[in-house]
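Batch job 17 of 40 flagged for manual review because the log was empty.
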Amino acid sequence: MESLKNLKVGVIGLAKSGLAAANFARSSGASVFVTESKQRAECAVFLKRLAKGVTAEFGAHSDRILESDIIVRSPGVPNNLRVLVQAKRSGIPVYSEIEFASRYISPREIIAITGTNGKTTTTSLVSDIFKTAGRKTVTAGNIGSPLADCVKKITPRTSVVLEVSSYQLEDVERFRPTISAILNITPDHIEHHKTMRGYIDAKARVFENQKKTDFCVLNYDDKKVRALKSLCGAKVIFFSAQRRLASGVFYSNGSIVVKLPFAGYSIALKLKIPGRHNIENALAAAAIAAAAGIKRGAIEKAINGFRGVEHRIEFTAAINGVEYINDSKATNVDSTLVALKAFEKPVWLILGGRDKGAPYRPLGSQIKKKVKAILLIGEAAAKIRKEFSGTAELLDAGDIDGALSLASRRAVKGDIVLLSPACASFDQFDNYEHRGRYFKNAVLKMKKRFEKK
């Protein structure tokens, strides 16, 4: 395993991943320099947790980062950043935090799960299955803790279950999962990747270094994902919620059917979380678990006992017969579409935030069927209004407080108020978790006021 001792490690971006990479590198004996475009005052939360001995600059990216032996790029830092371009021209290795941290672990297995939607639910579900099976499990990546924060607790007996985003996969070089999975691919992060092809290529890097002894789980029902089989060097396991497969994992008559050369059984599905998309998530998780050699009993127990994840179609409260649902994790159009399909009741939809470059029109048919009104928030409000003019009632709410105020006055018993923004949160919040917590707190305050009347 490589040593960081006495190396110069540069980190671009002091947020969650950058902080973890900087602290791990420093604790491993490296000289660490962090460069951050935000002002020092904006990074106060992260600065409190930055290891002693790490030096940092704020407000701009100077050429000092080019003195590094290794550069770690935080997710979302643009590819065309001047110092990044210069670093690559100079031959300085540029890694994502996932690539960087993975070089310093030797676990039992690495599971890497990506896709446009369902990553967090599937990663959480896989983690639960592994724990139910008695495996020492660390869950990290785009969920919970960055991998760099977990390096020192990972042993040769540890199963590492990672949620990985397209941003995290851009700068991989040797990262090699034992089992990879691509759940689905729909337009997202186009503002960063520039084209859909660029986005797909980033996702496909999850299996780039896999060998014939490894496994890759792919969604047969998604044409873009299915086509990636021809590029994959690992053993491919398909899953499908729509058809019986000659070999793979599929849904049939209310059961998960595992039909593989090394495993064959069915599991009666009794999901506690709503929506057809969660059947797909369960199928993917079962395929991953089967590839890892986990027995049927542990898979069945974990899947049927799973209660979902925070901020994903999460029931918050019922007030005067109106249900309030937190789906703040819906940061793209397809994710919001999945949420709308999960409900049959009339919906007051809170939509908007920071636009990500994709059209909102795919929501049109579900909006016509189910949505009483769209409550517009954030920077994308004008674009959304333009695309849905004449489709549904459009109300300018401004922010979550405004949206809840409008909804509480107009929604009636049997309605649903759904925060499923189809946008990033960064115009008004630190991240989607911050947005979701804010929504939940505001709803619970409303509930208390109602109960006092």
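Reviewer: the log was empty due to a logging misconfiguration, but the result itself is present. The chain has three domains: 8-92, 99-305, 314-452. Unflagging and moving on to job 18.
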